Amino acid sequence: MSPADRDAPNGAPTQADEHTHDEPANASAAAARRVSGLVAELERRGITNEAEIGALIERFLAGARPHNGALLVARAWTDPDFKTLLLRDANAAIERLGMDLSHWAPVRLRAVENTAHIHNVIVCTLCSCYPIALLGPSPSWYKSEAYRSRVVREPRRVLREFGCELDDSVEIRVWDSTAELRYIVIPRRPPNTADRDETRLAACVSRDALIGVAFAAAPSRPGPASETASERVAGDQM
To answer: Would you say residue 50 lies in a domain?
Structure first.
C-alpha cells in the first residue's frame, strides 16, 4: 500500500490520494536522459544552447527564496481581501504581488491555512515537487525518503521531532505535491504582533513554517524547528 492510501493518526485523512504523479519514483535517470536529448535537439535547431539554459536557471534561482513566501503570508495576515483571494486562487494572488511561479511550465498553487483546529503540512511522496519560487531551494530532508514516507504515515510524530508540538485535538492534513500542483502553508499569526507591519511580519515566517513543520514565531525568540531536528527526521529509519 502506498503512502497515499494510508490515513494519518487520529483519523485525519491525507490529501495524498487526491493527486497522482505522472512518473514512477525511479524515473530520475530517464528524465535526465530526456532533458539531455531535448537540450541537444534545441541546440541542433539553433533555438538555444546549454549555456543559455543554465543562465536562465541561475537567474530564476537567484530570485527564489523563502522571503517571497513570507511576504505572501504577511500580506494575507494584514489584508483580509488578499487572504480570501489567496485561498481561492493562489496563482492570481501571487501575480498581484508580481511573483512568478511558472517554473518554465504552468504550475498551479494552492494555499492551505493553519487554524486553531487544523494544521497543514506539505510533502511530495514520490519525488521532491516544491514551490521553489516561493520557498527557495528545497532542503535535503524534504527530499529524503524518510520524510516523504513518515510524514504521511505518522505526521504527528514527525512534526514533534521538528519541535512542532500539536494538541491531540488538532487535525493534521498532509498535502501531496505534484509536478502540476504545489502547496504553501499559511501559518497562524504569532501572538503580540498587532503592531508589526508586513516587513516585520514576514520576518516571523520561516521556510519550515511555509512547509508546515514549524510555527511562525517572532524573531526575538528562536522558532521551534531546528536544523538538528530536521537532520534527525531525515535520518530516521523507516
So the answer is: no
191: containing domain: 8-24+65-235
Residue 51 belongs to some domain of the structure? no
Q: Which residues are catalytic?
A: 124, 127-129
Which is nearest to 126 in space by CA: 23, 234, 14?
A: 23
Do the domain assignments include residue 20?
yes
- Return d(Cα 186, Cα 31) in angstroms, integer: 32
Residues 6+ apart with CB under 8 A from 225: 162, 163, 164, 206, 208, 209, 213, 214
With beta carbons less than 8 A apart as the criterion, state whether 70 and 210 touch.
Answer: yes
In angstroms, the CA 207 to CA 230 distance is 12
CATH code (residue 78): 3.90.330.10
Q: Name the CA radius of gyration of the chain, rounded.
A: 18
Q: How far apart are CA 234 and CA 150, in angstroms?
A: 9
Q: How many domains would you assign to the chain?
A: 1
Task: Report the C-alpha gap between 200 and 220 in whole angstroms.
Answer: 11
Q: Give a yes or no: residue 31 inside a domain.
A: no
Q: Give the model confidence (pLDDT) of 11-64 as tens digits.
A: 334 444 344 444 444 545 666 677 778 778 878 888 887 776 665 555 555 555
pTM of the model: 0.71
Q: What phi-psi label fits residue 176: left (phi over 0), alpha (psi between -120 and 50 degrees) or beta?
A: beta
